[in-house]
Amino acid sequence: MAYIDLGVDEKTFPGITGPMSYRPETAKPLNELAEVLLRAPHSLPAADRELIAAYVSGRNECEFCCNSHTAFAVAQYAAADTADGASIVAQVRADLDSAPVTAKLKALLRIAGAVQQTGRAVTPELIEAARAEGATDLELHDTVLIAAAFCMFNRYVDGLGTFAPPAPEDYTPMAQRIVEQGYGIPVQL
């Protein structure tokens, strides 16, 4: 049960959806930010951006955000006809160095991991390593912003003690809605 009365059934509005229902005036810009960062036209595929969100959320031990964005990444990989998205996400989370993603995405995920610790952990060497793998300034910018935003989202969800559905499959319907309709719609399980 959340630490405050969100005025909704937490099983219907789990994780971040409860606080967003509680304060729609703050939900609107947060959802707009998520839409721009994770779904808007960009040089990184939406699945890779969702993977960054899941990776940072996992490092922050935010169960709801990690599970939901893992499901969102898997659904985006499926929508893009990428092989086993679930395996890709699981391998990245378990061992980034041996995961079956591009060297550029690994370099960007290392930057996201540094941001998760502290923005000052991002070093010129990490930036240059990503550039050497072909990362653009836009990709570097958005990787840092996705990681920073998800640190905030994770702390929002966990700081209010919101409910996180326990089973990974509980997030699949939500993932399909995100792929089809995007952020900014009421998200329910």
Number of helical segments? 9
What is the rounded Rg? 16 Å
Looking at how many chains there are and whether they match, the oligomeric state comes to single chain
Unreliable stretches covering 5 or more consecutive residues: none
Can you tell me the overall shape?
Answer: globular
Query: What is the residue-mean pLDDT, rounded to a whole number?
Result: 93
**Could you state the order of secondary-structure elements as H and E?**
HHHHHHHHH
Q: Fraction of residues in helices? A: 55-70%
Strand residue content: under 5%
Structural class: mainly alpha
Count every beta strand, where a strand is a DSSP E run of 2 or more residues.
0
Distance between the termini: 17 Å
In this structure, how is the largest beta sheet organized? Answer: none
Structural write-up:
The chain is mostly helical and 189 residues long. Helices cover 63% and strands 0% of the residues. The longest helix has 23 residues, at 137-159. The protein is globular and about 50 Å long.
How is the secondary structure organized here?
Elements: H1 17-22, H2 24-38, H3 46-59, H4 63-79, H5 85-94, H6 103-117, H7 124-132, H8 137-159, H9 172-181
Helix pairs in contact: 3-4, 3-6, 3-8, 4-5, 4-9, 6-7, 6-8
List keywords for this structure.
single chain; 189 residues; mainly alpha; 9 helices; globular
Quick description:
The chain has helices at 17-22, 24-38, 46-59, 63-79, 85-94, 103-117, 124-132, 137-159, 172-181.
